[in-house]
Amino acid sequence: QLSTAFGKEKVMVGMAVVQARIEKPGVVAQLGHLGSVTFGEIEGGITSRGQQLRELFAQADWSVELTDNAMRALWRKFIYLTGSAEVNAVTQITYGEMRTLPETRALIINAWREIVDVARAKGADIGDDIIPWCETSLDSFAADGMTSLGNDFRAGRPVELEGLTGTVVRMGAEVGVPTPIHSTIYALLKPAALRIESNLSK
Questions:
Q1: Which of 3, 142, 145, 163 ranks highest by number of CB atoms within 10 Å?
Q2: Would you say the C-alpha torsion 66, 111, 114, 152 has a positive or negative sign?
Q3: What is the pTM of this model?
Q4: From edge to edge, which strands make up the β-sheet containing 64-66?
Q5: Contact partners, residue 66, CB within 8 Å, separation at least 6
Q6: What confidence tens digit (pLDDT) does each residue in 125-169 have?
Q7: What's the whole-number mean pLDDT along residues 105-126?
Q8: φ and ψ at 14, to 5 degrees?
Q9: d(CA 67, CA 42)
Q10: Domains with residue ranges and CATH for the chain
């Protein structure tokens, strides 16, 4: 949307990996480790403005990476976040439990693999190490924490079900890739998401 409004030459893309929750409108509480930020140009490559922005982030004591393939970074975060967050929202257990219970960890990994199949069918460059990278990311969060999606469902706050799991289901249908895990999780979480939406609209 920003690219459409202002032109691609004026927009950069990026992602943040952080454990946090919305306390109230305008207030975000960060949990666990500091996390990191990765950003770059939509069309790829390293530019002088990207280097200047990286220096500004560094001065603010952020852990930041300027990448020459920002779209790949966005895909990788989407894969990791969706698979782990949706399972957490259904199970309502901690990171420590999710990653140490063999059956639950296997479910998350298989959910990631479904998204990988969809991404590759769409021609996305996600790298050959995507699953090990996702597992490393999962293992890096505080054991007693939960995903933002899991916390939001628990607290009755607005949830990103459509932007995460729903998007995988729709993209899978578009490219002809089955997504049985995501379709099931979507069906399980949709009633709760609608209830939250209804309660917030009152």
A1: 145
A2: negative
A3: 0.82
A4: 12-24, 27-41, 64-66
A5: 39, 40, 46, 50, 51, 53, 54
A6: 999 999 999 999 999 888 999 998 999 999 999 999 999 999 999
A7: 97
A8: -165, 180
A9: 10
A10: 2-200 (1.10.1040.10)
| Beta-bridge partner residues of 43 | none
Q: Select the more confidently predicted residue: 175 or 41.
A: 175
Q: Kindly calculate the radius of gyration of the chain based on its CA atoms and give it in whole angstroms.
A: 17
Closest listed residue to residue 119, CA positions, set 104, 17, 128, 157:
128
DSSP per position, 113-136: HHHHHHHHHTT----TTHHHHHHH
Q: 42: helix, coil or strand?
A: coil
Cβ contact 165:189 at 8 Å = yes
Q: Is the dihedral of CA 51, 52, 57, 61 positive or negative?
A: positive
Tokens in use for 169?
């289901």
What integer is the mean pLDDT of 86-113?
Answer: 98
Which residues of the chain form beta strands (DSSP E)?
Answer: 12-24, 27-41, 64-66
Distances (CA, A) of 201 to 103, 115, 158, 190, 198: 37, 32, 11, 17, 5
Quick check: 45 pLDDT over 80? yes
Q: Which residue has the tokens 């202002």?
A: 6
- CA 107, CA 129: separation in Å to the nearest integer? 18
Task: Check residues 158 and 8 and name the one with the higher pLDDT.
Answer: 158
